[in-house]
Amino acid sequence: MPYYVETEASNAHITGDATTVSISSYFMARFYDATMQQMEAATLAAWRAELLGRISGDVIEIGSGTGANLAYYSDRVASLTLTEPDRHMCTMLGNRLRAAPDCWHTLVQAAAADLPFGDNRFDAAVITLVLCSVDDQRRTLAEIRRVLKPGGRIYFIEHVLARQEPRLIKWQRLLQPVWVCACGNCHLTRDTERSLVEAGFDFESITRQTAAGCPAVVAHCIRGVAVAAA
User: Fold this and answer.
1) Comparing 215 with 32, which gets the higher pLDDT?
2) Please, which residues have CB within 8 angstroms of residue 85's CB and are 6 or more apart in sequence?
3) How many CB atoms neighbour CB 46 within 10 A?
4) Which residues are bridge partners to 225 per DSSP?
5) pLDDT tens for each residue of 113-141
6) Residue-wise pLDDT tens digits, 3-51
7) Pick from 95, 94, 110: nearest CA to 60
8) Which positions ≥6 away from 206 have C-beta within 8 Å?
9) How far apart are CA 6 and CA 208, in angstroms?
10) Is the separation of the CB atoms in 141 and 152 below 8 Å?
11) β-bridge pairing 122-128 and 77-83
């Protein structure tokens, strides 16, 4: 029987001034889908469909936001646990799930770096446009690896540092302080490919590609599958 559960983990928290963060996160949640519309149509929808349609087993999604990935999972997914730290995003996602006629997902408000689940719980983890905005990439990836079963996989889509374009890197570094404040802690200069390797993941597949429908400073992306190294 389809089910829906919404819980707030004890580790869900807001950093910084609570009022300021609450106001900015409200507007981020309210307008996120609209601001992503062009990039979604030009690039992300096809990438999500190609990547997520092959996932199976018990799956955890990190930073689910407003639920952009939901339409792309197949019936090979046995269970889907959605995690999201922001309460405004959780409210929007919860409303979306409750309105779905065949909802079978679990939604948990939880920080990516402190997941309220036991070790070796999930077959796969999904992170799409999330590692740019977490407070601590290393800790987040360590947590994901902890909750994955041995040989578990991360399915990822992330915008990254423009390694091959020094001029663009200069713009990424110049704009980052403003971008972080305006775009929900999104960092423009993270070398997420390197972070995945340093966290103990081996790439089963990786595609480096420039996205369309977005500013150049967030257009350099990686997507693929990484396996927790033995």
Assistant:
1) 215
2) 12, 13, 63, 109, 110, 111, 112
3) 11
4) 155, 205
5) 999 999 999 999 999 999 999 999 999 99
6) 344 554 433 333 333 333 466 777 777 778 788 999 999 999 999 999 9
7) 110
8) 193, 222, 223, 224, 225, 226
9) 36
10) no
11) unpaired
